[in-house]
Structures are given as C-alpha cells and as structure tokens.
Amino acid sequence: MVLGGMRGMTGLLWETSLLDPEEGIRFRGLSIPDCQKLLPAAKPDGEPLPEGLLWLLLTGKILPVHSCSYTVMLSPPYLVQVPTRGQVNALSKELRSRAAVPDHVYKAIDALPVSAHPMTQFATGVLALQVQSEFQKAYEKGIPKSKYWEPTYEDSLSLIAQVPVVGAYVYRRIYKNGQIIPKDDSLDYGANFSHMLGFDSPEMHELMRLYVTIHSDHEGGNVSAHTGHLVASALSDPYLSFAAALNGLAGPLHGLANQEVLLWIKSVVDECGENMTKEQLKDYVWKTLNSGKVVPGFGHGVLRKTDPRYMCQREFALKHLPDDPLFQLVSKLYEVVPPILTELGKVKNPWPNVDAHSGVLLNHYGLTEARYFTVLFGVSRSIGICSQLIWDRALGLALERPKSVTMEWLENYCKKSA
Fold first, then answer.
1. Is 355 considered catalytic here?
2. Residue 359 sits in which domain range?
3. Residue 114 CA, distance from chain mean position
4. What GO cellular component entries does it have (predicted)?
C-alpha cells in the first residue's frame, strides 16, 4: 500500500456515497437506476434533477423500516428518504438566489491568457470566490466548533450555485469570443448550465441533468474527493478545499481522462473511417497498446464490472441518438476492447468507465471542445464534495495526518518480515 497509492486501503469516512466493485456507486443507498426512477425529473420519464440528488446527499438517511415516513424500500429491509418535487423546487430556487458571481471573479479569470487550459481558468475563478467565505469570517470571530457546519453549509450552497456560472463564463470566453449568456431563472440547475454554455435543445438539457447527477460523487477515495476532504480537514473553507480538489481533478489519471477518450475516438475515425470493421478496430486497439499507451475510458481503480455510469449514458444514447456514428463506434469498442485487455492479463477491470461515453454524447449535441470536458466534471463534482464537507464539519472529523515512511524503513521492514 505504501508504494501502491494506498489502493483499496480503508481510511476515510464518506457519508454521501459508497462504491462497490461489483455493483457500482450508491448515493445514500440508491443506485443510479434507483435515482433515475425515484428522484424528481423535469418531465415525465426524464432524467433526475441534480438538485434532487443534492437534497438526498445533504439529508438522506437509511433507516430501519419502522422508523421512517415517506421512503423507498431497499434490500435488506431498510428505507431511504427521497425528496419530493416541492422540496427539489425549493432547493432549485435557493440555488438560483445564490448564483450571482462578483465582478472580481471575472477579472481574475480575465487576467489569464485565453489560451490557458479551461481547468486552470475554472480553478482560478473558484479560488477568487473565496473572498466571500462565510466560514472564514465566522472562524475569525471565534465561532465554536459545534457550529462549524453552519457557515460551511452557507459556503457550500453558494459555491454549488456559482460554479455553473463560472464554468460557463470560461467556456464562452475561450470558445465563443467572450459572448456571455446570462442565467435564466426559469430553468433548473442542469438546464441552466446548458443554457449558459449556449445549448438550449430539450435533449441537451436532459443530457446535462443526467451528466451532472452521475458525475456528482464517487465516494471519498478518488483524487478530487480525497483532496477536498484532506484540505478541509485543516479547516480550510469550502472554496479553498474545492479549488484544491479541482487541481486534482485536472490530472490525466483522473478527470482529464474524459477529454482523452473523445480525442482518441476521433483519431480512430481519422485513420480508419467511420464505417470500420471490428477487425480494423481490433488492429487499432492493439496498435495503441503496443505503442505503450492505454485505451482511454477502460478500467477503473475500484470497479470490476462495467461502470453503471457508462450504462446509463449508453441507454440515453440508444434512446436519443442511436444512429450517431461515434456512438456506434463506442458500441463496437464495448465489444472489442474488453477481450483484448483480458488477453493481456495485466488489467483487473477491462470494462468501460464513465469517461468512455460522455464525450460522444456531448459531441453529438455540439459541445465538441474536448479540452473543456473536465470543467463539466468539476461543476458536477461540487455537489458531492461540498455535501460531504458539510458532514465533515457536522461530525467534527479530525485533521487528516497519515504516517509516511522512507524507502530505507520499508526495506528494513521487509527484511525483518522475510
């Protein structure tokens, strides 16, 4: 574990979600199909509203059957509270009331070259929001520890409300000549984000609701979630903590992978054409692997089966864009890549993850700028990280301080154990 990135080591409390290697993610006990079925949607049989998931992460409890009122049955016999449409609408209204971004944030972003990576600009904007931190003000006034969660809650809700505005500003600044689209207070969280980016089709609104929901949280051990938790354990406020998390998310082995997938898929098309055979695709996959590279979008540090987040995006594509050429290519990759990775014998999980599909969906609706995709991930992840930060402070979790060792210590330990 010392040299293996602490892979699989149990060392964190993360209330809002739990990742099972075989089953995938559960948000407060609910799987992704559960969330799609049970959380309020903008329209009948539509995708869940991200505000509903936020409500669930903040307040959801799994309780014994006899102790709960409006609930959903889980197995074993436990019940989980889910929000009503009225509760979700109220939370959506609350977020809209907090979404205004101060001018100094835009000025901080504008101080960077337009050519700066979108994640650099986004993280800079989030850090600039820290000026308004209620937690910092309360801490400086001597707030008791038992009340730390209250200004953390205020900061977290404001941050969640503001990051789509900041993220959309970055997109329009880089790719649309700085022509900014203001928020629309008649729209929900996901649809408004899509609108501010410049995409107003009902299908894109639905996709953004799904995207934000499924990317919001993935328990606490991944780089961005763990970074946010670690920094917050020093009582850094949510803005500082989430900005740090974004810098972890920007790494190629974490959130940046979603841009790499679409770029790789387009390289396949450039070399083989859109109507390639499975044999041609196999040859290209082997060419990628033999060059010392990985096939992006396949494998996961915890999961040992196909990522449920991949499957719900596949279902979305089958419903809305079954004839899209890149979707058809992704479907072929689903058949071709896992057997090849299994044949290599070095991969514990040869199945596709969430990144294998998201770029193709976004590309279909016109959001083609792959370098920007990680910002979408970052906006989404604010919901999970900030929800848990509130619980960190409410539970009074300790400063994180694991033990490290030197290589010499490790060598001596191994010799003694031999």
1. yes
2. 1-58+85-400
3. 25
4. mitochondrial matrix
In a domain, 413, yes or no: no
Give kind and range of the element (H or E) at residue 128. Answer: helix 118-129
62-64 vs 30-31, strand pairing mode? unpaired
Q: Read off the pTM.
A: 0.93
How far apart are the C-alpha atoms of 56 and 190, rounded to whole Å? 16
Within-domain flag for 79: no
- Whether the Cβ atoms of residue 192 and residue 212 lie closer than 8 Å to each other: no
Count CA atoms within 13 Å of residue 283 on its CB side. 7
- Per the structure, the count of domains in the chain is 1
According to DSSP, residue 355 is labeled: H
* Catalytic status, residue 20: no
User: Residue 174: which CATH number?
Assistant: 1.10.580.10
Is residue 245 in some structural domain?
A: yes
At residue 62 the predicted structure's pLDDT band, cuts being 50, 70 and 90, is: low
- The catalytically annotated residue of 229, 300, 357, 364 is 300
Residue-wise pLDDT tens digits, 183-228: 999 999 999 999 999 999 999 999 999 999 999 999 999 999 999 9
Indicate which residue of 195, 205, 254, 357 is catalytic. Answer: 254
The active-site residue out of 155, 188, 307, 355 is 355
